[in-house]
Automatic annotation (TrEMBL):
PANTHER family: SUCROSE PHOSPHORYLASE (PTHR38784). It holds the Pfam family YaeQ. SUPFAM superfamilies: Restriction endonuclease-like. This is YaeQ family protein. It comes from Pararobbsia silviterrae. SMART domains: YaeQ (SM01322).
Length: 186
């Protein structure tokens, strides 16, 4: 018998002063049986960082043809493809051909650096790729916020993100920008 996902609910208030995006989101997040609280909360932080009215959680680990999050336009075209973790270069290349923007949020300290070294050269030609690496310890701090029902506030200003609830200190979510999209020359 297959294990079922555990369902988490999050009321997320976002005040993104960098993008002038202010919204409340009622989210349902499925924690895959093989997924950790760390990974789930990094997915939630990725949602907050790139939030839009049409951004949604996907099947992710349960379906190799879907990212962790995506945003589609009204025609069904993929605007944002967001993967969390360390996807292989084939997955990134496939995503780059399907989406306007591809974003990868890696975490895991030294393991992320080891993953990125060979992948970086293989995706060098991808023009629509952003790769962010969470600072070491950040994912573990985010996991400390995980509860089956969450009420979280997220503030983003001057390239810094704070995520927290009323019961604990907010977590500073910091990242290094390993890759930015390449501007098209005219």
């Amino acid at each position: 018998m297959a294990l079922k996902s555990t369902i988490y609910k999050a009321d997320l208030q976002i005040a993104d002063m960098d993008r002038h995006y202010y919204a409340d989101h009622a989210l349902t997040i499925a924690l895959h049986p093989s997924e950790t609280d760390e990974r789930m909360m990094v997915r939630l932080a990725a949602f907050a960082l790139f939030a839009s009215e049409r951004l949604e959680f996907c099947k992710g680990l349960s379906d190799v043809d879907e990212p962790d999050l995506w945003e589609t336009d009204l025609t069904g075209a993929i605007v944002q493809w967001i993967d969390v973790g360390q996807p292989d270069d084939r997955r990134i290349l496939k995503a780059a051909g399907r989406a306007e923007q591809v974003r990868v949020i890696s975490y895991g300290g030294r393991a992320s650096e080891i993953w990125w070294k060979p992948v970086e050269s293989r995706v060098a030609r991808v023009r629509n790729l952003t790769v962010l690496n969470l600072r070491e310890g950040c994912a573990a701090a985010l996991a400390g916020l995980a509860q089956r029902t969450m009420r979280l506030q997220c503030t983003i200003q001057d390239g810094q993100m704070w995520l927290g609830d009323a019961a604990s200190e907010p977590v500073l979510v910091e990242w290094e920008r390993w890759r930015e999209p390449v501007a098209r020359s005219s």
